[in-house]
Amino acid sequence: MPELFTFFGLITHDKTFIFVVHMLLSAGVALALVKSAMSNLQLVPKGTQNLMEAYIGGVLKMGTDVMGAEAARRYLPLVATIGLFVGIANLIGVIPGFEAPTGFLEMPLTLALVVFVYYNFEGIRRQGLFKYFKHFLGPVWWLYWLMFPIEIVSHFSRLVSLSFRLFGNVKGDDMFLMVILMLAPWVLPMIPFALLTFMAFLQAFIFMMLTYVYLGGAVAIEEH
After folding, report:
1. Distance, first Cα to last Cα, the chain
2. Which of 154, 87, 74, 53 is nearest to 118 (CA)?
3. What b-and-e string marks burial along 54-81, b requiring 16 or more CB atoms within 10 Å of the CB?
4. Residue 164 Cα distances to 2, 57, 108, 177, 202, angstroms
């Protein structure tokens, strides 16, 4: 099977170059979208401002359902930024001639590391080092020796869960799109494109939801 065609691939076939350019393109589109939404703020939002306010409201509502309004608002900038970045990166891969940077393992793994380090940092900061890791021991003292390594492995497995889920789904979508375009290069396959667009949004939603869940579990240990 031939490689996925990209416009930037006409410059060089170096995978690192193609990944970095598409990642920077995704970041540029996200920044341009945010700047456009904030360039002319109005009491009654219209256009891009309306779109971004609806997005922020949706992310906040999702976080409120997971960890309460106060905590959701505290972590909204991180989660909303990641969701916007991932969503745009996924959507770029739906456009023929471009490749989703999330289809390269480097980007999902980096984002997963950011979330992993941050939620553990927040858990330690909010609960204290001893109390945070005491949660890893479980409720039964004579099972401490067993529960602690299981919890450690469980937390590190979240890196795999976050990164490989996003990478695998987006990479699979890229392969699916390549096959569709090989079979019908001159006819716009509307149904597959609609499906891929839906999957792009879905993967961004799942990444945001898991980020909120991990943060909620880290900062609300004393409530369990």
Report:
1. 51
2. 74
3. ebbeebbebbbebbeeebbeebbebbbe
4. 23, 28, 7, 19, 15
Backbone region of residue 68 per phi and psi (left: phi > 0; alpha: psi in -120 to 50; beta: other values)? left
SS (H, E, C) 90-134: HHHCCCCECCCHHHCCHHHHHHHHHHHHHHHHHHHHHHCHHHHHH
User: What's the one-letter identity of residue 204?
Assistant: A
The three-state secondary structure class of 48 is helix
Dig out the tokens for 133 from the structure.
Answer: 């890791």
Where helices occur in the chain by DSSP H, the ranges are 15-38, 47-67, 69-74, 76-92, 106-127, 129-134, 144-183, 190-219
Residue corresponding to tokens 């396959």: 189
User: Would you list the domain boundaries of the chain?
Assistant: 8-223
Q: How far apart are CA 176 and CA 52, in angstroms?
A: 30
Q: Give pLDDT tens digits for 16-25.
A: 999 999 999 9
Distance, CA of 219 to CA of 113 (rounded, Å): 18
Look-up: residue for tokens 């970041």? 27
Contact 74, 83 (CB under 8 A): no
Token code pair at residue 103? 């289809």
The whole-number pLDDT of residue 46 equals 80
In three-state secondary structure terms, 185 is: coil
Give 188's pLDDT tier (boundaries 50, 70, 90): low
